[in-house]
Design goal:
Layout lengths: L1 H17 L4 E2 L10 H5 L29 E8 L5 E10 L4 E11 L3 E4 L5 E5 L2 E12 L4 E14 L2 E16 L4 E15 L6 E2 L3 E9 L5 E7 L9 E3 L10 E3 L2 H7 L1 E10 L2 E8 H6 L11 E9 L2 E11 L2 E11 H5 L1
Parallel strand pairs: 1-11
Antiparallel strand pairs: 2-3, 2-20, 3-4, 4-7, 5-6, 7-8, 8-9, 9-10, 10-12, 12-13, 13-16, 14-15, 16-17, 17-18, 18-19, 19-20
Length: 337
């Protein structure tokens, strides 16, 4: 198995270098499937919880404590897009864990047209992701993990296939209620292209920090994303004046805060959490459109009822749409007893 993982990592890194001249696609891989991560701004590589869905945030976040955990999630994303995820976790000895999962995304029905504009039917573009992850505890406080993803896309008559790898590490000091996580996401590339153009995966480096605030039930979360490049410009115009020329913004302060997500979590017990986050990049990305006052904010709530964990997350990126995510998870071992 170690040999297999090594071969997969080498193949993924090699595909990265060959894809540098292509255009980026597969941005749906950045979507979280955990309501807790969704409520913390969409990226949470340092969150400590027994939620198997956190594996797509950082494969080092799963461990033996997730033995026989299964989770089902659904999100109504922007427009008519549906996003669903199914995951299962299991212990691998006293210091390791496995997780397997499936993610499915469809973007709703779209109209097909000929070059002259004549409608010729409809189609529903889809993406499917098969995942497998493994983690290992190097010490009582340090854990590393790897995740392999096989991505199949079907857009009408066009199909593509890609392979990606996430590599992560997490440091957790329970005495100080401190967690630090680092993850490199989506190393890999296309094995089969849609056409002659090579589409790159959304490779990203993320660093997460989560710190409990004294003896209170509050925790502060700060996540740095898109660390493969500093310059993240955005474009803005006045929503009330559609004739206004779009202006490019790329100051030092803008670039700095477009890399950062700030979150606050209230968790008085293991059976309940409530969090809120602000993602400046999401808000400024909507500057070209009709954003709302709540653009960039997200929130989530989680509660345990007997053997089940329920979670719900919500965000309103712009005035025309609200994203709602729901998770249900349980431990199969507890149900059988």
């Amino acid at each position: 198995m170690k040999r297999l993982l090594s071969i997969a990592m080498i193949a993924s890194v090699g595909a990265v270098s060959s894809a540098q001249t292509g255009s980026q696609a597969y941005n749906f891989l950045e979507l979280p499937s955990s309501t807790q991560a969704f409520g913390l701004g969409g990226a949470a590589p340092a969150v400590i919880n027994d939620d198997v869905n956190l594996v797509d945030q950082n494969p080092a976040l799963i461990g033996p404590e997730l033995d026989k955990k299964v989770s089902l999630g659904y999100m109504r994303w922007l427009g008519s897009t549906n996003y669903a995820a199914l995951r299962y976790g299991m212990a691998a000895g006293e210091r390791g864990a496995w997780a397997a999962g499936l993610r499915y995304i469809d973007y709703g029905s779209m109209t097909m047209t000929l070059p002259d504009g004549t409608e010729s039917g409809s189609f529903t573009p889809k993406d499917l992701v098969f995942e497998g992850a493994y983690s290992h505890d190097f010490s009582d406080r340090l854990r590393g993990g790897i995740m392999m993803k096989m991505v199949y896309s079907n857009y009408e008559q066009y199909t593509a296939f890609a392979i990606a790898t996430d590599l992560g590490i997490n440091y957790y000091n329970e005495d100080n209620d401190l967690s630090l996580g680092v993850v490199v996401k989506n190393l890999g590339g296309q094995v089969k292209r849609f056409d002659q153009k090579y589409d790159r995966l959304p490779i990203d480096v993320q660093i997460g920090y989560m710190q409990g605030l004294g003896s209170s039930p509050f925790s502060l979360a700060i996540t740095a994303t898109h660390l493969t490049k500093w310059n993240l410009p955005y474009y803005k115009h006045d929503d009330k004046d559609t004739d206004t020329t779009v202006e490019k913004h790329s100051s030092f302060g803008s670039n700095l805060f477009r890399h950062l997500i700030f979150g606050l979590q209230y968790q008085p017990s293991d059976n309940f959490y409530l969090n809120l986050a602000y993602n400046y990049k999401t808000r400024t990305d909507m500057s070209t459109y009709h954003r709302s006052f709540l653009s960039g904010f997200s929130a989530a709530l989680g509660i345990n009822v007997k053997s089940f964990r329920f979670g719900v997350g919500v965000a309103m990126p712009h005035s025309g749409g609200t994203s709602l995510m729901i998770n249900v998870s349980t431990a199969l071992g507890e149900l059988l007893h």
